[in-house]
């Protein structure tokens, strides 16, 4: 038995009803707008001229060396790009403008818990330096370039670090910072934001892993120490064997060594008398 469900498409709303229709009307509206805009402009300029000494207070604006002003006249971008530094003019009532600071801004990326490629959880934080490279674009293309850059920096950090294993995370910070910087810069380019620098501040490992790594390092050091000691013994025994061979070659050498030992004992413990008893005397008894 089968159940068939017939999906009927939802009834389509007639959108055209609510849309201002077509090109001829649009062109008309555009023309009308242009006329109104010109009218408003003329009136505003007249007003400025009439109230001249005082109107300067409202028409002349100043931005600092490090700032730019993006001007909108009746909602449209004014041609010629952002104004500044120094003074610029606006027409009150029909112009609005916003100031953009071009200086480098720094922010902290809060610590991010990241799972590295070899499944270790690490907490990483970073510092990002950026500045506005194009004030016009920063105003028109993004609502809040600072916030957007912050959020994007956090996610880019996670994405880039997620592709690295632990040893790379710890040893290649320089190149990782570089990688984050370039991919962040590409992403923020449409916002007029130039990411100058990214520094990975800290890579924090979980406590247990820290302990394990410390134990591993200690063990490997101990192993090395043992190998070195063993090598020393090997060399020493070889040297001893050579010495023994030399002594065995000539019996007189043994006698000399014997006397030397006696003299050193005599120097150290001068109250003790050592009487050497040559073993050769007992040879006759020992062989029997
Ligand atoms: C800023 O961007 C706009 C639009 O892309 C462009 O026309 C303008 O030349 C740019 N300004 C600078 C200073 O690069
Ligand atoms: C980490 O990755 C690199 C290259 O991707 C590789 O050469 C290295 O052996 C890896 N290390 C570990 C501990 O997996
Ligand atoms: C014996 O040795 C002691 C020190 O160990 C020293 O003071 C003393 O003079 C020595 N005696 C002789 C006879 O060399």
TrEMBL record:
SUPFAM superfamilies: Band 7/SPFH domain. The chain crosses the membrane at residues 34-58. Keywords: Membrane, Transmembrane, Transmembrane helix. The keyword DNA damage does not apply. One of its GO terms (cellular component) is plasma membrane. It comes from the Eukaryota. Residues 58-217 form the Band domain. Its main location: membrane. PROSITE patterns: BAND_7 (PS01270). InterPro entries: Band-7_stomatin-like, Band_7, Band_7/SPFH_dom_sf, Band_7/stomatin-like_CS, Stomatin_HflK_fam. It is found in: Membrane. This is Band 7 domain-containing protein. The lineage of its organism: Eukaryota, Metazoa, Ecdysozoa, Arthropoda, Chelicerata. The gene is 107366094.
């Amino acid at each position: 038995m089968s159940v068939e469900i017939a999906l009927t498409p939802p009834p389509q709303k007639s959108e055209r009803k609510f849309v201002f229709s077509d090109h001829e009307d649009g062109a008309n509206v555009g023309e009308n707008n242009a006329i109104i805009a010109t009218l408003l402009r003329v009136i505003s300029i007249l007003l400025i001229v009439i109230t001249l000494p005082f109107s300067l207070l409202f028409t002349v604006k100043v931005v600092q060396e490090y700032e730019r002003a993006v001007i909108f006249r009746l909602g449209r971008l004014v041609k010629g790009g952002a104004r500044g530094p120094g003074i610029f003019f606006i027409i009150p009532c029909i112009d609005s403008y916003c100031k953009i600071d071009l200086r480098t801004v720094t922010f902290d990326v809060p610590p991010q818990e990241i799972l590295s490629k070899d499944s270790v959880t690490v907490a990483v934080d970073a510092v990002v330096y950026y500045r506005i490279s194009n004030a016009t674009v920063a105003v028109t293309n993004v609502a809040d370039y600072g916030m957007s850059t912050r959020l994007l920096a956090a996610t880019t950090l996670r994405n880039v670090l997620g592709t690295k294993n632990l040893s790379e995370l710890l040893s290649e910070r320089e190149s990782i910072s570089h990688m984050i910087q370039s991919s962040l810069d590409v992403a923020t380019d449409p916002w007029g934001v130039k990411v100058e620098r990214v520094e990975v501040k800290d890579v924090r490992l979980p406590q247990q892993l820290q302990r394990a790594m410390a134990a591993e390092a200690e063990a490997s050091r101990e192993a090395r120490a043992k190998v070195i000691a063993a090598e020393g013994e090997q060399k020493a025994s070889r040297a001893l064997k050579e010495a023994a061979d030399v002594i065995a070659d000539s019996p007189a050498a043994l006698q000399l060594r014997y006397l030397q030992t006696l003299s050193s004992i005599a120097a150290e413990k001068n109250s003790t008398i050592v009487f050497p008893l040559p073993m050769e005397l007992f040879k006759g008894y020992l062989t029997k």
